[in-house]
Structures are given as structure tokens and as C-alpha cells.
Amino acid sequence: MSIDVQRIRADFPVLAKLINGQPLVYLDSANSSQKPNAVIDAMTTFLQHDYSPTNRSAYTMAAHATDLYEGARANVARFINAPRAEEVVFTKNATEALNLVARSWGTANLGEGDAIVLTHMEHHANIVPWQMLAAEKGFSIRWVPLTSDGLLDLSNINQLLAGARAFSFTAMSNVLGTINPVKELCALAHQHGAIAIVDGCQSVPHMPTDVQDWDADFVAFSSHKMVGPSGIGVLWGRESLLDAMPPFLGGGNMISDVKLDGFTCAELPAKFEAGTQPITEAVGLSAAVDYLSALGMHNVRAHERDIATYAINALTDAFGDDIVIHGSRDIEKRGATISFAYRDVHPHDVSQVLDQHNVCVRAGHHCAKPLMRLLGANATVRASFYLYNTNEEVDALVSALAEAGDFFTL
Amino acid sequence: MPGLEDLYREIILDHYKNPRNRGTLEPPAVRSEGHNPLCGDEIEVFLIVNNDIVEDIKIAGQGCSISQSSASMMSAAVKGKPVEQARALISRFKHMMSIDEEGEPDTSTPLGDLEALQGVVKFPVRIKCAVLSWNTLSEALDIAAE
User: Fold this and answer.
1) Do A141 and A76 share a structural domain?
2) pTM here?
3) Structurally, how many domains does chain B consist of?
4) ipTM for the complex shown
């Protein structure tokens, strides 16, 4: 079964927007996705009728808000097939989730002489927290290189993982669109006694996620890329690891007792949720999870496989050697996030011309500067497609690109 | 909505396609480097200052048409000019870009071709592109003065 894109588009009010009489062509969902009415309405209804603090006050409305908040947690747990809802920790976003792992697990487990392994295709969110900690703790960071077609080069993975304490990697590149073999990478990490940390920010919105099948130890992702609101993200972690870790942020909600000479932590997941949480956003995320679940993540992936194929073919047919699409051409190994170089036109100039046609793409380094250096570019244009994008929008991209080419021909 | 022709004036595209004073200079020339963290643009400014005169300037690095043409025009405008005049031009240019708007700019130094970049103000996200080389020049002048 494939998804009915026109019906889906009707669910996203912003997609009906006209700018100067022309439709919006939103191709920046790898950056942040648009929101359906189901999410907007769930949050509005909660704010209008049900808002109150969670996990502290005893009145009925607070109990109801707590039920909704904890229901969101259970819903997210189901969505990623987590064994227990308590293993789902709400954070601000995937960046904070990865910082939590680095600060909490990393501080307790990494020291001088230790090593962790990252890859050349990581987002800064899965690089900088480790570099910050490494500067304090003195452990080393090893890097998995890439093949020329933008896949992880696993030819020396056993040497890289030998003696490593953690292997932290993205499930899908936010620049190349590469889908990594997560299950295989988790198994490799475990063979070497390392834990496996998965940055699921780009994969969770676009394909089925099963943390148990992956056999991962931690998975981080953001709500705002999966048709949910910004301001909330998720860290799923194996209970035994989360239990053994020191707290991340200190404050209300995360303690079981505080005395003048110290404190004791609350149980999971409150231990990692200091202060008032993004309650309304959790309600929105839960509605997003329901929305995606009703469509079926296999169907979302199938649609994106189709549109990525159409887009790569259309761009190649129209521009031939004038366009360089980064990453793999194998549609089974990539998602619908497509970065490219177009003639010698600078990505910023390309996106400016596209903007005149309401075609929204990202131009820049995509928070992945080590990868950009590897590509030999200081910026790329990135068109990223999602469940609501159509082949006609690919055509709009192609024709706007042709105009950019005419304008800037050197 | 402002059109592309407001931003990409012919003279801008000319400087982009045929950048002036492109290259590097060896020490004792001073060098400074500027980055636009948003889009990854990089600019290097090489400068020889003698007797308070900008004797030579070279520009290296890569970036979009706005950042590159702005750098090219800037190099043409300050080459051979007194340092004081170069600094006045930096201030005047940034004023044109709606930065440092306090006070009236020193208009004694003509903007010349640089007037063409006026349209950038209508595209706020591009102001950083236009100003990158000027901030880098300012830094290079500081280094040269040390």
C-alpha cells in the first residue's frame, strides 16, 4: 500500500499557502518538517482545556495532564518498539539527548587511554559533545571513513573498534542521505565491548524504527523533524545503562530527596527530566506519532524511495554533468535527502533564485563540516523530501534550478 | 517582494565572474581570515601597509556571489588608499548594510561601484555575506597596526 499524498497534503495547512500567488514548495524537511492539523489541534486543545503541570499537583486536571504526558511517553516507546516506557527520556531535542549521553554516560565511563568511535558523516551534534568531553577527560576519538559513494567504509572497522568504549553513529546522514546498516553496526560495537549510540534524528521520521531489533544501547531523535513540534526530543536508552548513569541536569522532578548535605535521584525516567518539561510539546509529539503510525512507516519509506528515485532521475536528466549529486545512487542505501553541487553556482546563490519561486531548500554546510571538507565543498544545496512532497514539486525544483543556471553562467 | 535584479546587479556579477586582486601575498604581508558560520563561506585578506597606506591587497577563499563580489569591490576601493580612508569606508559600507547605524557615516569617501550592493539590504539573510570581507579587512588593518 502506498500513501495518498494529496490527502496527506490536505492535513498540512501550511502547504496550501500561496506566496505571490505561487504555491509553497517545501523541500527542507531534513532541517525541520511541517506540522499536520492533528498535531496543531492536539496542542491547541490541550492548551485551551487541559493544560496544567505534570507529576506534582494532586488535583484532577494535573492528574489528567500527567496521564497525557506519560501517555506520550508510552506512545513514543511503542513507536520505536522500546521494551519499557521508562526507558524513554524526553529532552529538548536530539542534540540535548546526545549531550546527555556524552555528559552522563561519558563522564562516568571515559577516561585517559580510552577511545570512542564516530564516523565522518556525523552531524556536529554527534561530534562536538564528545570533543568537549574529550578535552576534559583525555580519551581519543577515532573516525570511520567513507567510501567514494558516501557509504561508511567498514574495511577497517575491527581495528577502529578494538578497545573502544562506544561507537556513536548516525542512522542516516543529514547531508548524503546515506542509510547506515544500524543493526550490523550495533553488533560490531558489541563484539568489541563498545556500546552502540544511534543518532536517529534523520531516520526515525522516515522509516520504521525498532530499537530492540537494532540491539542499540541509546537512540536519540527530535520531534520537529517527524511532523511534531519543536522543543522536545527523545533519548531512548537501555534501562540497565540509564540506571547506572549519573544525572544530567539537576533540579526539580529529578530527585527523590534533597538534604543540606546532598540528594538522591528519582527513578527513571524522572531522573533525567529536571524541571518542568515540554508538556504541550509532548502532547504534540504523541499526536505526531499517531499520525505517522496510522500511515505506516513502511509506507512513508516507500513513498520517499519513489520520490528520491524520481528526483535523482529528473535532476540528472535535466542537467547531466552540470549537477553532482553527493552520496549513493543506490536507492536502497539512501533516503530522500539529496545534496548536490550545480555547475559553479554557489549554493547560497542557488537557494536565492529558488526562493524567488518559493522553492525552500537549505544551502550551507548542514552542521557537518568534517563531511563537507571530505566532499571538498564549503557548502551544498540540499533538497530534502518528506511524506507530503510530490513529483510536481521535484519538477518545480528542476525548472527553478535551470533559471539559476542561466542567471549565473560564468 | 524584491526581485533578483535588485540583488544581483550587473556590476556585482561582473566582480563575481572577474574578481579583482585575487590571490595571496607572502609575509611581511599580514593575513586575516573570516568565516560565515551559517553558510561556510571563507575569506582571506592579505595586506601590505606602509606609511599608513594600503600598498597592496589580495583576496582568497570561496563564497557566494555576494561575498565574493563585495570582497572584490572592496579590494579595488581600498588599494593605494590611506588606512584612515579604508577604515572610513568600512564604516560607511557597514552603515549602508544597516549595521552600526548609530550616527551619520563619514561620506567623504565615495562608495563608487559599492553602491551596487545597496540592494542586499532588502535580503537580510545576505547582509552577512556582503559584510564578511569588510570585517576581515578590519581585522587585517588591526594586525598591520600592531
Assistant:
1) yes
2) 0.93
3) 1
4) 0.83
